[in-house]
Amino acid sequence: MKPEVTLKYLAYLRNKKANNEGFTLIELLVVVIIIGVLAAVALPNLLSQVGKARETEIKNATGTTLRSLQSYHFERQNFTSDLGNLGISFQTRYITNVTGMIVSATSALAEVTPENTNATNDGTRAYAGRIDYGSGTYAQAVCQSDVVASSIGAPASGDATTCTDGVIIR
């Protein structure tokens, strides 16, 4: 290639590059709008995930208490309404109160209800559990409320398949 043509071509490329630097205002505006729409769609999902993460403490407390009640009953042949007798402890950041009660006079079943009085602010659903003993076997069921709530009624029985105020989880 001739040196004159090469120099003219290089000068052309240099001038072309100088004119095409940066983004236009419209391009930047479109990017900002797209990011805003994505954030608006993702924010509610993020907030519900935070509530579900907080519910883990309540689920763990319910399950731990039910298993401890089963162990207590296995050793002593009756349930206790004083949860201090179970020798368990759990975090109480999102749990205001845990109640346990013996439902029947023969001590064949017990209910556990962790409660979060700040459920609306924390975004947590309520849980309640029940354990039954009969014919040498134990049956447990846990109810979860459908919506954010501070408490929920316990399942109708340990082998229940439905809850009056929510759904059964195992």
What does this structure look like?
The chain is an alpha+beta fold. It has one domain. It has three helices and five strands. Strands 1-2-3-4-5 form a five-stranded antiparallel sheet, covered by helices on one side. A hairpin with a 6-residue loop joins strand 1 and strand 2. The model has no long low-confidence stretch (mean pLDDT 82). It is a single-pass membrane protein. It holds the Pfam family N_methyl. Its main location: membrane. This is Prepilin-type N-terminal cleavage/methylation domain-containing protein.
Strand order, largest beta sheet: 1-2-3-4-5
β content, as a range?
15-25%
Number of helices: 3
Q: Shape from CA axes?
A: rod-shaped
Main sheet summary: 5 strands, antiparallel
Gyration radius from CA atoms, angstroms: 31 Å
Structural class: alpha+beta
- What proportion of the residues is helical, as a percent range? 40-55%
Helix and strand element order: HHEEHEEE
Low-confidence parts lasting 5 or more residues at pLDDT below 50?
A: none
> First CA to last CA: what distance?
80 Å
Task: Explain the layout of strands and helices.
Blueprint: H1 3-19, H2 25-76, E1 97-102, E2 109-115, H3 119-122, E3 125-134, E4 137-148, E5 166-169
Antiparallel strand pairs: 1-2, 2-3, 3-4, 4-5
In short:
The protein has 170 residues and is α+β, with helices and mostly antiparallel strands. The protein has helices spanning 3-19, 25-76, 119-122, and strands spanning 97-102, 109-115, 125-134, 137-148, 166-169.
Please supply descriptive tags for the structure shown above.
transmembrane helix, membrane, alpha+beta, N_methyl_site, Prepilin-type N-terminal cleavage/methylation domain-containing protein, transmembrane, 170 residues
